[in-house]
Amino acid sequence: MSKKIALLLGVHAHQPVGNFPAVMEDAHHRCYRPFLHLLAQFPEFPCSVHFSGWLLDYLIEHHRDDMELLKTMVVRGQVELFTAGYAEPVLAAIPEVDRVGQIRFLSERIQEFFGGDLPRGSWLTERVWESSVVPSLRQSGVRYVTVDDYHFLCAGQDSATLQGYFTTEEGGEPLDIFPIAESLRYKIPFTPASEVVSYIESLAKENKLDAGIYFDDIEKFGIWPETYEWVYEKGWLEQFIRGVLSSDIISPMTFAQYHAQSHTRGPVYLPTTSYIEMNEWTLPASAARRFSAMVERSRWENRYTEDRPFIRGGIWRNFMMRYPEANHLHKRMLGLSQRFHALDVAAQTAERRRLLYESQANDAYWHGLFGGLYLPHLRRALYAALIELERDLDTIAPRPPQERRDFNLDGYDETLIHNELLQVIVAGSGPAHVLELDSYQLRQNFADTLTRQAEHYHDKMTQQPTLPQESSGLANPHDRVAFKDVIGPEDMTVDSVRRALFTDYVTAAPIHAPLEYVPESAMSDTSLTASFHCQTLNWAGMIKSFSLLSQALLVTYTPGPTTSSLNGLAVELNLVMPSCDGPAGRFENNGKILGGFGDVLTLESVSQLMLRDEVLRGQVTLGCNVSCRIQTRPCYSVSQSEAGFEKILQSVTVTLDAFAVNEQEPLILSLAIIPL
Q1: For the structural domain made of 5-269, what CATH number should be given?
Q2: Which one of 316, 499, 552, 571 is at 20 to 30 Å from 225 when CA atoms are compared?
Q3: Once rounded to an integer, what is the mean pLDDT over residues 659-674?
Q4: Residues of CATH 3.20.110.20 domain(s) within the chain?
Q5: Choosing from 98, 126, 201, 504, which is the catalytic residue?
Q6: Is 217 part of the annotated catalytic residue set?
Q7: Do residues 130 and 96 touch, judged by C-beta distance below 8 A?
Q8: How confident is the model at residue 460 (pLDDT cuts 50, 70, 90)?
């Protein structure tokens, strides 16, 4: 037998739930459509493809002809479709019942449109592996998955043996696993096509059909910087396909074809991990710097190839530790899942299930090379699904108006108050500020901001740019340093206090630290008011109360026996408005337009400020029972995107102080939310 090697080429297509239609259209025209149309020209070139469910439904609705073309390739056996969780959740981070439900939801959707049998292969979101997902995959009809070869190396496997699939089990439930070759993941499509073909040929062995295994983001074929020109206009993809088909050594096939004609290489038990870059991203900046230094030291000593399986970093769930906003959203989602599955089966409708699944989409729970959690519209989409589902569940399985429980696992009981139109969640310790303020009508959480923290990659901004070395290939986006916006030192501020609504400070205090509160010991689950007692010296005894009216939240500050006046108080709100700093959002006062949400304002001796948002189709009116000073400023974060470092408006910071309040007179602030 002459030398032969199978090429298993798979691509994964995904767009986050809630992404902008313009972004979806651009991705389709620069990537999905040209990829599918070029692939269709070569019926003899098999390929495996995964489209996340939310994206698949979008493409079927808006670009049906292209999906019909994909269907043609599926029917003729050229393309194998992979399944996964419908809304692209990290399976390990959601309840088991939802793992099975999400996979079946997408598998049945694939079968409904494309015909044939249910998919037997599954993509794993972000290649996050935990052995607990094995039974869920098996129950969903999945028989094999793909993860990185790095996962296998972490289990002590020899890289020379990773050219086929292996078998694991959990509780006696078997599952086959294909190791994706990191070498191919970094070469395709960045290295010239002829070099990639030659490299794959070099992997072939005599008397044994090994496999060169690739499964990665299709967005590398047209959406990543410079790739559209490289892949399509300069012809990389066509050159690669023709090179593979003309090779006497390479036999391209789908994963299903290889799985059917080959056999397992033996048992394997993988540790909890993801791809190696993710393991660094999950770490806080200080730990990530130490991790990076250790990696660089290993490279310098020419030991990295043998050391890297044992240089692990963190795991995906660390994002819940790193970002309190991700943890808050995650625990809210888990609570809604429990409520949904407590319903009678007849009440678990497809629409309610869809909303639950959308709230589990992975993108807004983490942050790595690009956007993710840092993108307000992605967080907003998940909250919109969560809020709509919660409002619906309240109509058929009502909750008490007030609850107190530690749902975010921080060791303190949060206070939840809701009526038919609004819900407020107050932190269980410390500043007694609002972590979530929901409008059920507008499907909006007005406290959905992001606390600014240091990111390890911020260090890159101080590096001197280097000229690219002469190369016939394409630069890897992981190594690019570019700037979409001008970033100044003031933009790199790190927050010491979580950003929220109604965080209280003392204006004359030498240290800018929030006032501290404890909740009132007595609680009534029928009341729409919750009170907190201030514990900070000189302000001890002041009572801060939250009350829900029909369409407004009232926050009342009642002076304590040692508090002579409240005019030394400053109250900060970080309001999240969907328009961000775009033209559809503006400040108004007494019918006069004052500016946009990206403007800095100072208003003296006023008692009201309106924030009007055309994207929201609603307005927020902030009021005070006495005249005061109101100052606004935009709160930007700095993160990476495909285009480089950028500033993103996370919230509008509104500060109220200089209250014209008399001694022992209470201060009452109101936040009214009105749909337009």
Answers
A1: 3.20.110.20
A2: 316
A3: 93
A4: 5-269
A5: 126
A6: yes
A7: no
A8: confident
Work out the widest C-alpha separation in the chain, in whole angstroms: 96
Measured between alpha carbons, how far is 554 from 582 in angstroms, rounded to an integer? 29
* Residue 146 banded pLDDT, cuts 50, 70, 90: very high
For 399-453+487-675, CATH gives 2.70.98.10
- Where do the CATH 2.70.98.10 domains begin and end in the chain? 399-453+487-675
d(CA 223, CA 111): 28
Please tell me the distance from the alpha carbon of residue 449 to that of residue 233, in angstroms, as a whole number.
41
pLDDT digits (tens, 9 = 90+) for 461-472: 766 444 344 445
How far is residue 446's CA from residue 434's CA, in Å, rounded to a whole number?
A: 10
pLDDT at 57 over 80: yes
* Those residues with Cβ within 8 angstroms of residue 178's Cβ, 6 or more apart along the chain or in another chain: 8, 144, 145, 146, 147, 164, 165, 211, 213, 215, 255
Give the model's confidence band at 562: pLDDT under 50 very low, under 70 low, under 90 confident, else very high.
confident
What pLDDT does 488 receive? 81
Question: Taking Cα atoms as reference points, which of 327, 326, 358 lies closest to residue 101?
Answer: 358
Computed on alpha carbons and rounded to an integer, the radius of gyration of the chain in Å comes to 27
Number of H helices, E strands in the chain: 19, 26
- Average pLDDT on 510-535 reads 86
What average pLDDT does this structure show over 61-79?
98
User: Are 341 and 330 spatial neighbours (Cβ–Cβ below 8 Å)?
Assistant: no
Q: Are strands 618-641 and 667-675 parallel, antiparallel or unpaired?
A: antiparallel
Q: DSSP code of 467?
A: P
* Mean pLDDT in residue range 27-44: 98
Residue ranges of E strands in 154-298: 166-170, 173-180, 210-217, 250-253
Confidence of residue 447 (pLDDT cuts 50, 70, 90): very high
Catalytic residue among 170, 217, 413, 599: 217
